[in-house]
Amino acid sequence: MVHVRVPATSANLGPGFDSLGLALSLYDDVQVRVRPEPGATVAVQGVGAGEVATDDTNLVVRAIRRGLDHAGVEQPGLELTAVNAIPHGRGMGSSAAAIVAGLMAARGLLEGIVDLDAATLLTLATEMEGHPDNVAPALFGGLTIAWMTPDGPAYKRLLVHRGVSPVVFVPTSTLSTKLARSLQPASVPHADAAFNVSRSALLVAALIQSPELLLAATEDRLHQTYRASAMPETDVLIRLLRQQGLAAVVSGAGPSLLVLGSDPAQRLTAAELVARHAETTWRPLMLAVDLGGATVNAHPADH
To answer: Which of 3, 135, 257, 292 has the fewest CB atoms within 10 Å of its CB?
Structure first.
């Protein structure tokens, strides 16, 4: 039996579209037990209970099988228990977490037989997710820069300045990543691309060294404006928060919004503003940056 814990993530962080991601201290926990009977069963507690698939079509199960297939080992019967805290369909990396959970479980099950190393895990996760910006921080923790090479995905992990204080505001509504992506144009003006290059570079500096620059560093012209029509309240709140000097951005594909405070007091200010001005209910999650990424622990079969 193996136990896996995977953090939530927020991708893009404003200007770092499809490249920057941050791991957050909210977790899905999965226990996987090998059994003699074929197929898979999944028991889900917390987020997704009664909604996600509980058989071989479950995304975590599919990721486990993908990892085992890569290693060339025979597929066993599986019994999963998932305790989920990461919201689904709200831009906090729930699908990336499920994929990473499955691949890390496969790594644990294969311990002493085949080593699924970091590069392999990132490659398999990116193939399943379609892009590496969420799976990289889910795997490795901290702030990650992810990019594609001719040989596949690559990443660099960075430590975040201790003053950076994230808070995510989660609405009751959801938004599919596919829909969000469909709202973006195929090309953007050269000036907007140059604008985002400068802000992305500045954002890395702000997150690791100079949090006081976070407001300027989180400006974006590549994706948030185009997606605003699909999440109007998110857009209104981000504009409001930014007018008050707070580094507010869409979390991933949305509709959750992320505020990157330069100190813990800014999180409380943001929460007060959202509570006062939001038309619907938004749940504030005062989170830390997760430093360790996904973990897996193996237990004896009779544990």
So the answer is: 292
Is residue 185's pLDDT more than 80? no
Q: Tell me which residue has tokens 């504030």.
A: 284
Distances (CA, A) of 27 to 34, 97, 232: 23, 9, 28
Q: Give the pLDDT confidence score for residue 186 in this predicted structure.
A: 79
CA distance 109 to 77: 12
Average pLDDT over residues 179-188: 72
End-to-end CA distance of the chain: 8
Do residues 77 and 37 make contact, with C-beta atoms less than 8 angstroms apart? yes
Strands 248-250 and 257-261: antiparallel
Measured CA angle at 94 (ends 45, 247), to 5 deg: 125
Q: How many CB atoms lie within 10 A of CB 217?
A: 25
Residues linked to residue 167 through DSSP beta bridges, in sequence order: 259, 286
d(CA 250, CA 177): 12
Q: What's CA 229's distance to the chain center, in Å?
A: 23
Residue 209, classed as helix, strand or coil, is coil
Amino acid at 182: S
pLDDT bin (cut points 50, 70, 90) of residue 49 is very high
Q: Which of these, 124, 201, 4, 233, lies nearest to 248 by C-alpha position? A: 233
As a whole number of angstroms, the distance between CA 12 and CA 19 comes to 6
Sort 50 into a burial class: Cβ within 10 Å, 0-12 / 13-18 / 19+.
exposed
* Residue with the two structure tokens 């500096």: 205
Nearest residue to 256 (alpha-carbon basis) of 29, 5, 8: 8
Query: CB of 24 within 8 A of CB of 294?
Result: no
Residue pLDDT, tens place only, 283-298: 999 999 999 999 999 8
